[in-house]
Write a structure and sequence with these properties.
Elements (H helix, E strand, L loop, with lengths): L17 H21 L4 H13 L10 H18 L12 H26 L6 H24 L15
Helix pairs in contact: 1-2, 1-4, 3-5, 4-5
């Protein structure tokens, strides 16, 4: 049997961005686990599992299903009911739980960019379900952050960009 002590991950030295995607999804799952310490939301453990299913879905068989997308859509709707629609851009601040959720939201968007980059680099058919999965997940993390701040009586702070003034 080969000694693997000095091998953290077998794909680390490949030139493809697939490994970057897999490391990013592993980081996201780990950060969700960290957030679970501060945010008591029963769906977070399910989201960790789904992120790990998405982890291998670029290199191998797509393990995210339409049922998973339906689950995320329902979670989005249920979470939205708790806070209502956010009508403006908010600063990523507030309670410790909300801040962790904002970090998850941001990391998820980085993963979407990696998926797009891989699609372009490898000239492969887009895996639209992964785009939908991570876009929904990012928006769910935003709503969860709003719920956390609401539950902690932290007022959201609106951000108005000087770059995009009308």
């Amino acid at each position: 049997m080969k000694d693997t002590r000095a091998c953290a991950y077998s794909f680390l030295y490949e030139s493809s961005s697939l490994c970057d995607y897999e490391i990013a999804t592993d980081e996201l799952a780990s950060q969700i686990g960290l957030a679970m310490h501060y945010v008591k939301h029963h769906d977070l453990s399910k989201l960790v599992e789904l992120v790990y299913h998405a982890n291998g879905s670029m290199r191998a068989k797509i393990a995210i299903s339409e049922e998973d997308i339906q689950y995320l859509n329902q979670l989005y709707d249920d979470t939205l009911k708790q806070v209502g629609a956010c009508k403006y851009f908010v600063l990523p601040q507030g309670s410790i739980g909300a801040c962790h959720l904002h970090c998850l939201r941001s990391k998820t968007k980085s993963i979407i960019r990696l998926i797009h980059q891989i699609d372009q680099e490898e000239n492969r058919e887009k895996r639209y379900i992964l785009h939908d999965f991570f876009n929904l997940l990012s928006n769910i993390f935003l709503l969860m952050a709003l719920v956390e701040n609401k539950n902690e009586n932290v007022e959201e702070m609106q951000f108005i960009s000087k770059s995009y003034e009308c």
